Each structure stands twice: as structure tokens, then as C-alpha cells.
């Protein structure tokens, strides 16, 4: 029986750690989590933002996830969108769902990322 979700993993190309940090830490405000020593030599990056945990693992050959994606809940979608657009990233709105506003952006490697904000009561 599933009790929860521990993390989501996306692939990245070898050597992309600095670009990942700039995007996920610098623009989205996640914090880097130290990888266990047994896994550190594999490259990649572990990140946390609130309850969301994201692992970026090196994959060769690399192909971005264009349809499959994580959806991160943010507290101020308009502010996050403005920060991403100011950094030159294309932010694509999508149909809002009941009680949810959402947009899509690509990480530095072309992986699809959904950002959503729930309506406040």
C-alpha cells in the first residue's frame, strides 16, 4: 500500500549541475540537498522545496521529458512567472482547472515543468 511520495526524478545531461542550480535554486527557490556519499559520484542534483523533493539524475544519452512532468505548487504564481520571464524563459499558460491556475516552463534541459497555484478561500 502506498503511503506517500518520496521524490520525483528527472533526467539531465552530464555536466548540467550548474544550470540546474541556476534554474531550480536561483529561479524557483528550491534548496539543494546533499546527496549520500554512495551516490555523489554519479553526478546530478537533489533538491527540496517545501514538501516537494526532486532528484535530477544524469542520463546518457539524454532526452528531455516533454510530456511527463512534475507539477510544483507555488504560493505566488504571478511572481514566479515574472521572475522566469525576466530570466528570458518562455512561460506558457494552460487551461486553468477548478481552483487552480497553472503554467508550464522548460528547465534548462528541455524537461517540462508545471507550476500551479491553488485558489485561496
Structure description:
The structure is a single chain. This protein is an alpha/beta fold and 121 residues long. It has one domain: Roll (2,3-Dihydroxybiphenyl 1,2-Dioxygenase, domain 1), CATH 3.10.180. The chain is 21% helix and 32% strand. The chain contains 3 helices and 8 strands, in the order βαβαβββαβββ. The strands form 2 sheets. The chain has a 4-stranded mixed sheet, with helices on one face. A hairpin with a 5-residue loop joins β7 and β8. The longest helix is centred in the first third of the chain and has 11 residues. It starts with 7 loop residues before the first strand and ends with a strand. The mean pLDDT is 95. It comes from Wenxinia saemankumensis. Keywords: Dioxygenase, Oxidoreductase. This is Catechol 2,3-dioxygenase.
Distance between the termini: 32 Å
Reported for the largest beta sheet, the result is: 4 strands, mixed
Number of helices: 3
Which word captures the global form?
globular
Lateral arrangement of strands in the main beta sheet: 1-4-3-2
Radius of gyration: 15 Å
Strands, count: 8
Structural class: alpha/beta
Output the CATH homologous superfamily: 2,3-Dihydroxybiphenyl 1,2-Dioxygenase, domain 1
Ranges with pLDDT <50 over ≥5 residues?
none
CATH class: Alpha Beta
InterPro entries: Glyas_Bleomycin-R_OHBP_Dase, Glyas_Fos-R_dOase_dom, VOC_core
Keywords: Dioxygenase, Oxidoreductase
Domain VOC: 4-118
Organism: Wenxinia saemankumensis
Amino acid at each position: 500500500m502506498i503511503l506517500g511520495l518520496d521524490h520525483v526524478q528527472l533526467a539531465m545531461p552530464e555536466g548540467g549541475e550548474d544550470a540546474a542550480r541556476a534554474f531550480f535554486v536561483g529561479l524557483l527557490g528550491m534548496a539543494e540537498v546533499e546527496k549520500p556519499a554512495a551516490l555523489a559520484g554519479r553526478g546530478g542534483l537533489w533538491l527540496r522545496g517545501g514538501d516537494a523533493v526532486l532528484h535530477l539524475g544524469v542520463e546518457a544519452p539524454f532526452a528531455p521529458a516533454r510530456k511527463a512532468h512534475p507539477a510544483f505548487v507555488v504560493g505566488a504564481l504571478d511572481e514566479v512567472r515574472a521572475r522566469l520571464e525576466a530570466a528570458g524563459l518562455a512561460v506558457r499558460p494552460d487551461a486553468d482547472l477548478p481552483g487552480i491556475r497553472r503554467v508550464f516552463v522548460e528547465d534548462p534541459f528541455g524537461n517540462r515543468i508545471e507550476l500551479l497555484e491553488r485558489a485561496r478561500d
